[in-house]
Amino acid sequence: MNACIINIGDEILIGQIINTNAAWMAQQLNLQGVNVTQTIVINDSPQAIIDAVEAAKKVANIILITGGLGPTKDDVTKHTLATYFNMKLEYHAPSFENIKILFKQYGREADERYHSQANMPVGATVLINKTGTASGMWFEQDDCIVVAMPGVPREVKYLMQYEVLPKLVERFERPTILHRTLLSTGKGETDLSDLLEQFEEELPPHIKLAYLPNTEKGMVRLRLSASGANANQLEAEIEKYKQQLQDTLGVYIFGIEEESLEEALGTLLKERGLTITTAESCTGGNIARKLTSIAGSSAYYPGSLVAYSNEVKNKHLGVQQTTLEQYGAVSEECVLEMVKGVQQLFKTNCAIAVSGIAGPDGGTSEKPVGTIWIAIANEAEVYTKKLQLGTDRLQNITRTTNIAMNLMRLMLLDALDSEI
């Protein structure tokens, strides 16, 4: 069972909005054993829609279309598909009743201007959209299913979850497909592949391992995918190999599925009853932002200090003027004093300090752009690390933030030797 996703919208093509629908739909289809052969983005024109459907029918028996079902003149999907399937449009009372209910929730009344949105192709199955005014449509022709949905993401999700996927599940026999994802940092995909060579050789043919690197964050997602007919047997198998994968990589694995690095660090702090603070220069408070993005972070995070200028480093963190003059703000000596100063200032068990040249300018021959020093501390030790990153400012801030949090995680696990 193959599917093709067609997303309609000039706003997607010109980069005005990100096409989140395609990614989410593909994930949901894959979980149901539906193979997505391609995703197409086209403009808002009748001919583009017809050409895309014709092309999709050659490679898929399920075609899912989003966009172009609104009430304005540039929304041409419904009229185009009605013409394509040789169906006339007629007033569909349940669709208009749904519109009236939605309007009533906001204290408004749906008048005759909205009757046109309730005109639906006679012969198509109408999919009532309880989250929006545009109903979906289900067409069938020549053993091919074509479904049209509005483009608003929450409306796509509603129709897929409550209308489209249940109908597809009922209609087709599909294999069971399972995924398990482990999140790693500290090693690139080539190094991970070397560590996992034997593991991959021992995987059965129906279980695959994919490496999904995120170079901006310095992380690699490791996804195990299994397919088969026996769901219970498959569940047991993939769990076994997930545990083997986790055991093989040890501390390089920081999370499972969608767990973030800041969430993993927060869990460790909370479990150990520890507190943490940060002194940030080049990251401008980004580490603090990440730490406090986790619900319940107040249990281990009292506050931080963004010490961007040398004056603030000296006055509030106790960085010695002689240190700044002799070694500069971007130095091991400076971050050592910063991390001890902020730890004392906020009376925390743990602390992170960073200072560097994020870029794109400000570097020198001795300290080029991307030179960043990190210090982490607990009550017993202090550890420092020098980074030499690139010239992309935002990427440098992101990478520094993640590396600093991971170093703190490794310190809590007594596993800093994995960094050496």
Structure commentary:
The chain has 420 residues and is α/β, with parallel strands linked by helices. The chain has three domains: 2-171, MoaB/Mog-like domain (Molybdenum Cofactor Biosythetic Enzyme, Chain A), CATH 3.40.980; 176-256, Alpha-Beta Plaits; 261-419, Alpha-Beta Complex (Maf protein). It contains 15 helices and 17 strands. Strands 2-1-3-8-7-6 form a six-stranded mixed β-sheet, sandwiched between helices. The longest helix is centred in the C-terminal third of the chain and has 20 residues, at 393-412. The relative contact order is 0.08. The model has no long low-confidence stretch (mean pLDDT 94).
Beta-strand content estimate: 15-25%
Unreliable sequence segments? none
First-last Cα distance: 49 Å
The largest sheet has its strands arranged as 2-1-3-8-7-6
CATH fold name of the largest domain, please? Molybdenum Cofactor Biosythetic Enzyme, Chain A
Level-2 CATH architecture of the largest domain: 3-Layer(aba) Sandwich
What is the makeup of the main sheet? Answer: 6 strands, mixed
Strand-pairing-aware structural class: alpha/beta
CATH class of the largest domain: Alpha Beta
Average pLDDT for all residues? 94
Q: What coarse outline follows from CA principal-axis ratios?
A: elongated
Tally of discrete structural domains: 3
CATH homology group of the largest domain: MoaB/Mog-like domain
Radius of gyration: 27 Å
- Percentage of residues assigned to helices: 40-55%
How many DSSP E strands?
17
Annotation field: number of helices: 15
